[in-house]
Amino acid sequence: MELELLDFPVQNVVFGEKTALEGTVLTINREEMARAIDPDGFFADVQIDIARPGEPVRIINIMDVMQPRCKEADEESPYPGMFSPMRLAGTGRTRVLRGVSVMQTGRRQGIQEGIIDMSGPGAAYSLFSSLCNVVLRCTPADPNAGNGDFDAATRKSLLAAALYLGRTARGQQPGSVQTFSTDAPADACLRKVVYIYYLQSQGPLRNTFLYGKDVTSLLPTLLHPNEVLDGAIISGNYIIACQKNPTYLHLNNPVIRELYARHGKTLDFAGVVIANEHSTLFDKRRTAEFAAKLARQVGAEGVVMTQEGGGHADSDLMFCTRACAAQGIPSVMLINELAGPEGDQPSLVDTTPLARHVVSTGNNDQIIDLPGMATVLGGDCLLRVPDASRPFSTALGRMYTATNQLGAYRLSATAF
Question: What are the strands, taking DSSP E only, across 291-344?
Fold first, then answer.
């Protein structure tokens, strides 16, 4: 299975008469785009704004983030099963706009707040502050629309927006081409490594979708890494902003990218096992055993695991660590902490002596001070913050992807 990502760097996004990519500047016809992403007329109003790195802009109430993309063939979508007929992702050529994202924002009960500052000290806590962000705010025509309808309609509009912008790369020469394949056999002396990729799917507004279906009842499943990089997984999870894995990060998963970079050199990347984070101990154990079994079946001699979520989701990783150890497979995990504002509290809900290799991705409870911003997109207020343009202090828990457990950051730790 071979996938080519044709990268088109974008350095600026502006509004204009015609939607087009010219050099490194993406121009958007705002009115045309608004019509294109709401063909069913579900929304009374579709606002589209742009937030650029370094601007005094705060984006709030972020639901999901996607990357503008399109496949070479017009009848194909980079999100099979969700926005096009079912087909396997992970092959062919996909055109990708780098340096730009499209974000959906929304405020309603059940969607927890997410904040990105494009400048100031808060900008350091999200890699999205380094991108040009096209920000959507869609208001339903029916004020009584249920969460399910709102969730489905906003996801559809975000997918449509990503495809609408991605198509501007058609007929142009890419800045670079990345090829992803594990077809060539690796040296037999290299250790096989499997990535166990826990997803958050526990019901409406906290789901993840695989080929168009939520993974709530999924048994662990083996995927080719290319499937993840090519749109097989879509986020529908809107809780605890700091530890979300938005669709953009599924498409650009740093763990998969790193394992690919080392494939055939220091390790043999043997595949991705996806698993769901469940709410009962029985299901957590069941999933852990199946995930470890699949890893063993493909010959894993080492496992890297990540999660989305926290609290009782820590138990998913600990159960999986035990299950892998029982199969004779050493493991390492990426996990964030709930260690209190000073970092001096017990940081994990669950642990095991077998978890000997643990990478912390930060403390959700850390408090930071945010300055005022001239512009706020995605709304005007937050819980206990009636005017989101004003200065306020907040835990990292509100900062979008600040402690995400895929390792996608602008910050890093240094050993002295």
Answer: 302-306, 331-337
User: What span, in angstroms and rounded, lies between the C-alpha atoms of 180 and 157?
Assistant: 29
Indicate if the pLDDT at residue 393 is higher than 90. Answer: yes
Region of 283 (left: φ > 0; alpha: ψ -120 to 50; beta: rest) is alpha
Q: Are 274 and 215 in contact (CB under 8 A)?
A: yes
Helix intervals (H) in 189-236:
225-229
Count of positions (residues) in the chain: 416
The burial class, CB within 10 Å (0-12 / 13-18 / 19+), for 360 is: middle
Could you tell me the two tokens for 183? 């077809």
Q: How far apart are CA 274 and CA 251, in angstroms?
A: 14
Name the nearest CA neighbour of 220 among 119, 295, 313, 108.
Answer: 295
Residue 379 tokens, joined: 């709304």
Give the sign of the dihedral formed by CA 58, CA 62, CA 67, CA 69: negative
pTM above 0.85, yes or no: yes
Buried b (16+ CB within 10 A) or exposed e, 194-227: bbbbbbbbbeebbbbbbbeebbbebebbebbbbb
Task: Judge contact between 248 and 159, C-beta under 8 A.
Answer: no
Residue closest to 89 by CA, chosen among 284, 255, 252, 225: 225
H/E/C letters for each residue in 12-79?
A: EEEECCCCEEECCEEEECHHHHHHHCCCCCCEEEEEEEEECCCCCEEECCEEEEECCEEECCCCCCCC
Q: What type of residue sits at position 71?
A: K
Mean pLDDT, rounded, for 227-243: 93
Q: CB-based burial of residue 177 (10 Å sphere; 0-12 exposed, 13-18 middle, 19+ buried)?
A: exposed
pLDDT bin (cut points 50, 70, 90) of residue 416 is low
